[in-house]
Design brief:
Strand content of chain A: 25-35%
Helix content of chain B: 25-40%
CATH superfamily of chain A: IHF-like DNA-binding proteins
Largest interface: A-B, 55 and 53 residues
Shape of chain A: elongated
CATH class of the largest domain in chain B: Few Secondary Structures
Helix content of chain A: 40-55%
Oligomer: heterodimer
Low-confidence stretches of chain B: 99-106
Strand order of the largest sheet of chain A: 1-2-5
Largest sheet of chain B: 3 strands, antiparallel
CATH topology of the largest domain in chain B: HU Protein, Chain A
Number of domains of chain A: 1
Mean pLDDT of chain B: 86
Order of helices and strands of chain A: HHEEEEEH
Radius of gyration of chain B: 20 Å
Number of domains of chain B: 2
Number of helices of chain B: 3
Strand content of chain B: 25-35%
Structural class of chain B: alpha+beta
Number of strands of chain A: 5
CATH topology of chain A: HU Protein, Chain A
Number of strands of chain B: 6
Shape of chain B: elongated
Structural class of chain A: alpha+beta
CATH superfamily of the largest domain in chain B: IHF-like DNA-binding proteins
Order of helices and strands of chain B: EHHEEEEEH
Distance between the termini of chain A: 21 Å
Number of helices of chain A: 3
């Protein structure tokens, strides 16, 4: 399922207009992206939570050539599956 | 301070929905995502990331507390793959700590 399909599914199940459904989906993901870019945590009960993990610089290797490369420090979002979702997805 | 569902509901309210309606629409959105993943379907949000359902094969594990062997059954889990756009956004906005950034303000 992609974003467009999510928008039509939301439109069909709630009866809001397609424009509004698209806006809600946009707000949902934009607000999470904004929070994470500020280094803030995100917690959506039953679905998932995210926090930003800081990685220090380290010497990695180019897997193709085996050459050592310096990896600069970076931040990555860390995803944690919510309890309800975890139980529902598992058999 | 973490971003929560109620913050998102407040933002949806600003579109002109009532509070009750906003809660309903946001809850419904979350339910659709969950139902999709439950059905084993990935959810791809361009510019944000991809929620994938992964099948895990059974493997031998160990109870870290007692050290006893145990068998982990096959299971299904949700993973998240961050999009390049989101990664750039997270790395671009805040100056990286540790003083290695070239423009440290003193």
């Amino acid at each position: 399922m992609n974003k467009l399909e999510l928008v039509s599914a939301l439109k069909n199940s709630t009866g809001v207009s397609k424009t509004d459904a698209a806006r809600v989906v946009q707000i949902f993901f934009d607000s999470m992206a904004d929070a994470l870019s500020e280094g803030e945590r995100v917690e959506i009960r039953g679905l998932c939570s995210f926090f930003v993990k800081e990685y220090k610089s380290y010497v990695g290797r180019n897997p193709k050539t085996g050459e050592p490369v310096e990896i600069p420090p970076k931040r990555l979002p860390f995803f944690k599956c919510g309890k309800e979702l975890k139980e529902r997805v598992d058999y | 301070m973490a971003l929560t569902k109620s913050d998102i509901v407040d933002m949806v309210c600003e579109l002109g929905f009532t509070k009750k309606e906003s809660v309903r629409v946001v809850e419904e959105l979350i339910e659709i995502i969950k139902q999709n993943l439950q059905d084993g379907d990935d959810v791809l949000i361009s510019g944000f990331g991809k929620f994938c359902v992964k099948e895990k094969t059974p493997r031998r594990g160990r109870n870290p507390a007692t050290g006893s062997d145990l068998m982990l059954r096959s299971r299904r889990v949700v993973t998240f793959k961050c999009s390049g756009k989101l990664r750039d956004k997270i790395n671009g906005k805040l100056p990286v700590k540790s003083g290695s950034s070239n423009e440290t303000k003193n």
